[in-house]
């Protein structure tokens, strides 16, 4: 028989959602109130591309770039947008904010975002889930937002 196939290459980056240390949780936040989930990627897409959380739930996201390229060449971030935000318009606006890592400083459409990171780097954010609804998240690096996107579903 032929030899087994080679294992797939490691992902270029992944998003890990984990519970913060107990010391950072408020006394009113029980462990079940914290959303934890790992998201991985190997082809400029968030996998899974849907996250299901409860309104008001504490969310800790850690984005880790496992590739080797610098953020100026192949940077990644995660930007959670408010309901009704046009991904295309936001992505086009982000192009003009290279000096701010492609995060528009004049936008009121952002709920939360990670730093723009390159290979071997990571960025962590903590926020409370917004009101019930469906929210888009994207990578705002030029050209990535049209492919690299997902949904946060808040119930």
The residue fraction in helices comes out at under 10%
- Quote the distance from N terminus to C terminus: 50 Å
Order of helices and strands: EEEEEHEHEEEE
Residue-averaged pLDDT: 80
Determine Rg (CA atoms, Å): 16 Å
Q: Quick one: biggest sheet?
A: 5 strands, mixed
Q: What is the tally of helical segments?
A: 2
Q: What is the total tally of β strands? A: 10
Helix and strand composition category? mainly beta
Percentage beta strand: 25-35%
What is the molecular shape?
A: globular
Low-confidence stretches: 17-31
Task: Write a structural description.
This protein has helices spanning 71-74, 87-94, and strands at residues 13-17, 34-35, 37-41, 50-53, 58-65, 79-81, 110-113, 122-128, 133-138, 149-154. The protein is mainly beta and 155 residues long. The longest helix has 8 residues, at 87-94.
What are the key terms here?
globular, mainly beta, five-stranded mixed sheet, about 160 residues
Topology:
Blueprint: E1 13-17, E2 34-35, E3 37-41, E4 50-53, E5 58-65, H1 71-74, E6 79-81, H2 87-94, E7 110-113, E8 122-128, E9 133-138, E10 149-154
Parallel strand pairs: 2-5, 4-10
Antiparallel strand pairs: 1-3, 1-5, 5-8, 6-7, 6-9, 9-10
Provide a brief overview of the structure.
This protein has 155 residues and is mainly beta. It has 2 helices and 10 strands.
């Amino acid at each position: 028989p032929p030899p087994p196939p080679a294992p797939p290459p490691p992902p270029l980056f992944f998003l890990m959602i984990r519970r913060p240390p107990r010391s950072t949780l408020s006394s009113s936040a029980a462990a079940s109130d914290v959303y934890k989930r790992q998201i991985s990627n190997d082809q400029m897409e968030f996998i899974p591309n849907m996250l299901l959380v409860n309104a008001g739930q504490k969310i800790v996201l850690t984005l880790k770039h496992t590739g080797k390229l610098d953020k100026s060449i192949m940077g990644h971030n995660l930007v959670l947008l408010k309901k009704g935000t046009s991904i295309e318009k936001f992505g086009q606006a982000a192009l003009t904010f290279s000096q701010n890592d492609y995060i528009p400083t004049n936008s009121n459409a952002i709920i939360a975002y990670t730093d723009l990171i390159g290979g071997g780097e990571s960025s962590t954010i903590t926020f409370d889930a917004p009101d019930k609804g469906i929210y888009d998240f994207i990578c705002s690096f030029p050209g990535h937002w049209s492919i690299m996107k997902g949904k946060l579903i808040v119930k």
